[in-house]
Amino acid sequence: MSVQLLYIDPGSGSMLLQFIIGACLGVVFFFKTIVYRIKSIFRKEKNDTDTTSESK
Amino acid sequence: MTAITRHPASYRDPSGFVFRHFGDIYRMVNISYKEDYDLLMQSGLYTSLAEKKIMLSHTDVTAQFSLAPNAYKVIQPEAVPFWTYPYEWSFEQLKQAALLTLQLNKLALAQNMILKDATAYNIQFVAGKPILIDSLSFEKYTEGAPWKAFRQFCTHFVYPLLLQSKVEGLNPAIFSQYPDGISAKLTASLLPKSSKYNLNNWLYLYLPAKLEGKQDDSAKQRSISVSKTKILQNMEQLSGFIQKMKPPVVHSNWNHYYSETILSQEYLQFKEQTVAQWLKEKSPKTTVDVGCNTGVFSFIASQNSGQVVSLDTDPYSIDLLFLMAQKEGVKNLTTFVGDICNPAAAFGWNNAEQSALLSRLKGDMVLSLALIHHLALTKNVPLEMILETFANISTQYVIMEFVPKSDPRSQTLLQNKTDIFPSYTQADFETVAQQFFTIEKQTPMQGSERVLYLLKKGHL
After folding, report:
1. CA atoms within 13 A on the CB side of B5
2. Which of A25, B178, B214, B337 is most deeply packed, by most CB within 10 A?
3. How much is the ipTM here?
C-alpha cells in the first residue's frame, strides 16, 4: 500500500486577526469566568462534587 | 546514500522529507530541524503523544544509513494500514481530526512547543481514530509569537466543517479541489446569510473574510505580540465551536436502509449468516466492503479478517458507521466516503501527491452486497465492466450478491426507465463472472430472488 505524506507551509499567520480575536476573547472569557463563578456558588450549595469545566 | 527515492508528496517541509528505501518508508530529519527534533524527543512530548496513540510512533534508524552532511536523523514511522484523504472523510471524521489537531497543539504548548503547521493532510485514521502522521510538525514556541498555523487550521478544518454542517448533501470530494484549504471569503459567500448572527462564525469566518487579502506582513503587524494565554483561549474557543458543529439533519436515502427498506428479516439473517461463514472460511487479510452503507457487513467482516476498508457514497452513512465502530471499540475498520462509479483521482503535483482510489483499494476479499443492480440498472454499467473492476480490486475473492430484474428494488430502479438491459440475467451474470473468476459457491437467498456468490479470481 502506498504511503502518502503531505506537508503544507502555513504561510503568513494572520497576526492582526489573532490579535483582534485575542482581544475579543479576552472580553468573552472575562464574562464567562464571572458567569462560571456565580454558577459555581449555587452549584456548591447543592452538590459538593468538583465540577471542572474541562470535562465537557 | 544510494537507492533512496523521495516520496512525491514530500517536498514542502524544509525540516525533512519522506523517502522509500528498498520498499520501506522512512523520514529524513534535516540538520536545520535538529533543535526542534531534539526538543520534541527530550521534552517527553513525543513519548506522551505516541503513548496516547495520537501521533504515529517511529523508530530511530539513523545507524542503518550513512548520512549526507545536511542530514540529522532517519526515522521509520509505524505503518498506516489504509490511506485516506481529508476529501474522503465524513463530517464526524473531519471533526475529530480537527479536535485532535487542537489537542496536539495544547499538549505541545504545555511542553513549550507549538504546531508549525495544521494541515488536514497531516492526519490519518488508524484503529478507527485520527492520528498525527507528520513527526516534524512541532517547533519551539517563542513567547509572544502568534500561532503560525492558525489560518491553515481554519482553511483546512473550520471552513470545510462549517460548509458541511450548513450545506445539506455537500460531498466532501469538492475539497480535493482546494488542496491548500478553502478560503474564508469563499466559505462566507457559500453559507446562508443567517450564519452571520453568531459570535464564533463572526470571529472565525466573517472577520477573517474581511481581512483576507490585506497585507499581513507590514512592520507594524510584525511587532504584534500574542501571549500564550491568548493562544490557549483561542484554542479553547475553537474547540468549543467545533464540538458544537453538527452535520445537517438529513434523512438520506441510505442511512435508514436496513430499518426501512430491507426486503425481510429472513433474508437479512440468511445473508448475515452466509457472509459470516464464507468470511470465516477464507479469513482474509484485508476485506474491502464496497457500498458498505451503515456497515452491517463491515462489522461482520471485522470479526473475520485482519483489516476492513469500508466505503460508501453517502457521507451520513459513513458518519454513522464511523461513530458506531468507535463505540463498539472496533479497531481494524477504516471508513471513508468513496464512489466506485467515480473514484477519487490522483491529485497534486505530477498527479503523485494523493493517489487515486483504485490504486489504494486492494483486498484479498471484496464484498459487493446489494450493489450490482445500482451499478447495472441505475448507472448503466455493463456487467463485464463491473466484474472487471471487482477483479482488479480483489487479489483473491469476491462475495457478490446478484439482484435480478424481478427483485422489488430493481423494479423501483427501473420504474422510470425503459428496460434497456436485455443481458442482465442470472445466466448472463454467471457467464460474465466466469471470464474473470471461478464460481466457488453460490446460494439462492431465502426470502428473496437474489443469489449470493463466492467468486475466486482466475480459472481452475
Report:
1. 9
2. B337
3. 0.74
